[in-house]
Design brief:
Number of strands: 0
Order of helices and strands: HHHHHHHHHH
Shape: globular
Helix content: 55-70%
Oligomer: single chain
Radius of gyration: 23 Å
Largest sheet: none
Distance between the termini: 47 Å
C-alpha cells in the first residue's frame, strides 16, 4: 500500500475545504427550509417541519413565486431548444473554412466578455428606442441567448473538430444525400453532445439574473422575483424554494446524464466499426 505524501494530504484537505465552501450555503439553505412556522431565518430550528414548503403553493403576501417559476421554466425550455437548434448548424458551418468565419466566430464568443448588465441595458434601450415593450419571452429570451449560445457553439465546434470525416465519406460513397448523411450518420454520433448543449442552455437560463434584469418586462422570472422578495420581506419560504429548485435541477441533470449515457451506448457499437 502506497503511503500518501504530505503534499497529497494537504491537497486533500484543500479539496475538502473547497467542497465545504461550494456546497455549504446550499446545505444551510436546505436545513433552514425545514424551519417551523414560528421560526425565522436563523438557528436553532423551532418546531421543524415542512410548513414553508406548503406555503410555496399558496398566494404570497409579497411576490409571485408560482407565476415566476412557470415563466422561468418556459423561458429555460425555449433557450434550451434554440441553443441546440443554432449551435449544431453553427458547429457544422465553422467546420468548413469560409471567408469571414474567424471574425464571425470571434463575434459569437465576444458576448461572453461583455458585462452581463451592459448587455441587458443595451437590449433594453434598443427595445425602448424602437417603441417595443420588453418581455421575458422576447427581449429576455434574446439576452439569455447571448449568454448560452457561445457555450453551445464552443462545444459543437470542438465536437465536429474531433469527428472522423471518413464516416461521412463512406455514407456519401454508399449513395446517401447530405441530409441522410447528417440524419443517419452524424446526428446519432453527436447526440450525447447535443443533449449536453441543451442542458447547458436550460441551466444557464434558469438562474440567469443580470441579463434579464432590464429585459424581463413587467413580469419577473424566478431569479428576479427572489431578488425582489429579498428587498421587501424575507421568510424561510425562500429557503424552501431554494431547496425545491435545487432538487429539480438535480433531477434534470440526472435525466440529462442518463440520456447522454443511453445515446453513447446506442452509438458505441457503430462508432467502433471501421467506416471503410
Amino acid at each position: 500500500m502506497i503511503k500518501p505524501s504530505p503534499l497529497s494530504r494537504v491537497l486533500f484537505v484543500l479539496l475538502v475545504l473547497f467542497l465545504l465552501f461550494l456546497y455549504g450555503p446550499t446545505l444551510t439553505i436546505a436545513i433552514l427550509s425545514f424551519q417551523g412556522p414560528l421560526g425565522s431565518l436563523t438557528f436553532p430550528l423551532i418546531e421543524p417541519g415542512v410548513h414553508w414548503f406548503a406555503q410555496l403553493f399558496e398566494v404570497q403576501r409579497v411576490g409571485d413565486i408560482g407565476g415566476s417559476l412557470q415563466r422561468s421554466l418556459i423561458l429555460a425550455v425555449m433557450v434550451m431548444i434554440a441553443n441546440a437548434a443554432i449551435a449544431v448548424p453553427a458547429g457544422l458551418a465553422f467546420r468548413r473554412n469560409f471567408r469571414g468565419g474567424r471574425i464571425l466566430f470571434a463575434l459569437t464568443i465576444a458576448s461572453l466578455i461583455v458585462p452581463s448588465v451592459l448587455v441587458s441595458l443595451g437590449i433594453g434601450l434598443l427595445y425602448s428606442q424602437t417603441g417595443l415593450s420588453p418581455a421575458w419571452y422576447s427581449s429576455a429570451f434574446g439576452a439569455q441567448l447571448t449568454w448560452t449560445l457561445p457555450f453551445g457553439v464552443l462545444i459543437m465546434v470542438g465536437v465536429f473538430a474531433r469527428l472522423d470525416k471518413r464516416y461521412e465519406e463512406a455514407a456519401v460513397d454508399a449513395g446517401a444525400t447530405r441530409w441522410q448523411t447528417f440524419r443517419l450518420v452524424i446526428f446519432p454520433m453527436i447526440l450525447p453532445n447535443v443533449v449536453g448543449v441543451m442542458l447547458f442552455g436550460f441551466t444557464l437560463s434558469y438562474d440567469e439574473l443580470p441579463r434579464t434584469v432590464l429585459t424581463g418586462g413587467s413580469y419577473n422570472t424566478l431569479p428576479l422575483e427572489i431578488y425582489a422578495m429579498t428587498n421587501n420581506v424575507t421568510t424561510p419560504v425562500l429557503y424552501a424554494l431554494g431547496t425545491l429548485t435545487t432538487l429539480v435541477s438535480a433531477i434534470v441533470i440526472t435525466i440529462a446524464l442518463g440520456l447522454i449515457r443511453a445515446a453513447r451506448r446506442r452509438v458505441a457499437p457503430t462508432s467502433k466499426e471501421s467506416p471503410l
